[in-house]
């Protein structure tokens, strides 16, 4: 058992966490005369290390996930979801969301397509919630910072929010609050051609290139904010705002996250810095969920497809679920860290 634990720790620290890379960068910066104990030196080390680490993980994950995704084009996904009914359909949609686009704005066109195709509204909303919040990339990246237990629980509760949210919307019969053009758009059921292995590999490479170009600016911004928080903001400030002394830290983190726009890759370095400064785990994860699921640009896009009442219900379900999950993580974090 001890051998297995040692292997898992090595995988988390050296493969996912790439602590060896941090040491190499630190040695290189010291060799050119940079004081790593200073705020400037520590910030530069943090920025270079996190940018390289997240970029490497990003490219590998996108490649693997895109290869898997090549087996689930929209037409096939629609047929798969159409085979399920009731809560089972919501679970299937939430699970499908784990292998689809990395940000909420990318998920909305698929949500519109599924809704136009006649899939139950609650099912399509389970997909919409799950897709940006709990993709496979989030699992691996969270493991690299918080460990496997926290990452697994984060994904599990994200799926629960997606299934519960979609089920509630389904039970409330909100179909009349979908914009009319979505209902009448219909769907052209085109059979997706079978791809060869080489074509799938090419598709995965193209997805890596396209997603990297779109996401990389947010990574730089996220790492820059993380470096600033990590080395320039006093720990007492973070603990006061997001620590255990503030009973409203989860609500504050959720409200701060909503206006922002990023995906899981952009929020990870911010979360890493907040965790190092003493922020509560629940507040950090609530911030991440709010940014990835309820970003203002995605809500603006979603408003084009649904009416205000349904949009407000979606926001309320997601925000309420995120806040509840945040407080639960704060209560039980001692069992996870």
TrEMBL record:
Membrane disposition: Multi-pass membrane protein
A single Gene Ontology CC term: plasma membrane
Keywords: Cell membrane, Membrane, Transmembrane, Transmembrane helix
Keyword ATP-binding tagged: no
Subcellular localization: Cell membrane
Cell membrane keyword on record: yes
Primary location: membrane
Family to which the UniProt record says this protein belongs: Belongs to the UPF0718 family.
PANTHER family registered for this protein in UniProt: PERMEASE RV2963-RELATED (PTHR42775:SF1)
Name used for this protein in its record: Permease
Species, as recorded: Monoglobus pectinilyticus
């Amino acid at each position: 058992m001890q051998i297995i634990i040692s292997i898992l720790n090595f995988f988390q620290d050296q493969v996912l966490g790439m602590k060896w890379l941090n040491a190499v960068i630190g040695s290189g910066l010291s060799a050119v005369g940079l004081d790593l104990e200073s705020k400037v030196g520590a910030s530069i080390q943090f920025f270079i290390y996190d940018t390289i680490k997240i970029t490497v993980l990003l490219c590998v994950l996108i490649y693997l996930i895109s290869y898997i995704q090549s087996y689930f084009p929209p037409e096939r996904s629609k047929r798969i979801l159409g085979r399920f009914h009731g809560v089972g359909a919501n679970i299937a949609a939430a699970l499908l969301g784990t292998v689809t686009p990395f940000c909420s704005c990318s998920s909305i066109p698929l949500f519109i397509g599924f809704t136009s195709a006649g899939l139950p509204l609650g099912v399509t909303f389970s997909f919409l919630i799950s897709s940006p919040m709990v993709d496979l990339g989030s699992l691996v990246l969270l493991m690299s910072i918080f460990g496997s237990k926290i990452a697994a629980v984060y994904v599990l509760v994200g799926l629960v929010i997606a299934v519960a949210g979609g089920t509630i919307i389904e039970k409330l019969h909100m179909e009349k609050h979908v914009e009319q053009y979505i209902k009448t758009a219909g769907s052209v059921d085109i059979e997706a051609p079978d791809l060869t292995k080489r074509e799938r590999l090419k598709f995965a490479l193209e997805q890596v290139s396209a997603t990297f170009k779109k996401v990389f600016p947010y990574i730089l911004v996220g790492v820059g904010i993380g470096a600033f928080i990590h080395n320039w903001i006093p720990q007492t400030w973070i603990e006061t705002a997001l620590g255990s002394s503030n009973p409203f830290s989860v609500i504050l983190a959720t409200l701060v996250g909503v206006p922002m726009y990023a995906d899981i890759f952009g929020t990870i370095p911010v979360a890493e810095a907040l965790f190092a400064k003493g922020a509560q785990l629940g507040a950090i994860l609530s911030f991440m969920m709010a940014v990835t699921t309820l970003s203002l640009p995605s809500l603006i896009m979603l408003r084009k497809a649904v009416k205000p009442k349904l949009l407000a219900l979606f926001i309320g379900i997601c925000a309420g679920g995120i806040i509840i999950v945040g407080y639960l993580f704060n209560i039980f974090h001692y069992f996870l860290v």
